[in-house]
Specification:
The chain contains 6 helices and 4 strands; from the N terminus they run ααβαβαβααβ. The protein has a 4-stranded antiparallel β-sheet. The protein is an alpha+beta fold.
């Protein structure tokens, strides 16, 4: 079987991570794969903010849990790296482009032996003045809309088995 298709079929969302931060070179490969995602009209209007700073991850986790309505939990499942995908605010294809970036990030993490999971609520986080200011403070100028968080790390445990695929999801017109 083709290696890319095999990765697509085997990748699963991981909800238990070891605390060890993946090597920067490995994270750079994952990020590069994300940056090569297709984008509407080839505009490449998404950015990725890579966070391995534990204090920032904990702050993001806290606000994410509050938005989710599950205060006191860790929506990032202890992942030691969070790759935040943001789209240019107002670009009509932003959510679509960002979704393709997220898919590439998760597939690349899997291909490199790491686990990942897409965590929502980035949209609400980056509508907050505190997080808009934080983006500016790290040099991400402009107006951004959160698409998602790709929580990444070494898997703590077994890779989950795939759920059975639902029937009647393909319609051929020949």
């Amino acid at each position: 079987m083709n290696e890319v298709i095999k990765a697509m079929l085997e990748r699963r969302s991981i909800r238990r991570f070891k605390p060890d931060v993946p090597e920067k070179e490995v994270l750079d490969q994952i990020i590069e794969a994300g940056l090569y995602a297709a984008s509407g009209m080839g505009r490449q209007t998404t950015i990725i903010v890579a966070v391995t700073n534990r204090e920032i991850i904990e702050k993001l986790s806290k606000v994410n849990a509050e938005i989710w309505g599950k205060e006191g939990t860790d929506p990032f499942y202890g992942a030691p790296a969070i790759l935040i995908v943001l789209a240019e605010k107002g670009w009509r294809n932003g959510a679509y482009d960002g979704s393709l970036v997220m898919g590439n990030l998760m597939l690349a993490a899997h291909a490199l032996g790491l686990g990942s999971i897409w965590i929502n609520r980035a949209k609400q986080e980056f509508e907050m003045d505190e997080w808009k200011a934080w983006l500016k403070s790290i040099g991400a100028e402009g107006e951004w809309e959160g698409v998602g968080h790709c929580a990444v790390g070494y898997i703590d445990g077994d890779i989950p088995k795939p759920a059975p695929r639902k029937p009647n999801r393909v319609f051929w017109v020949e």
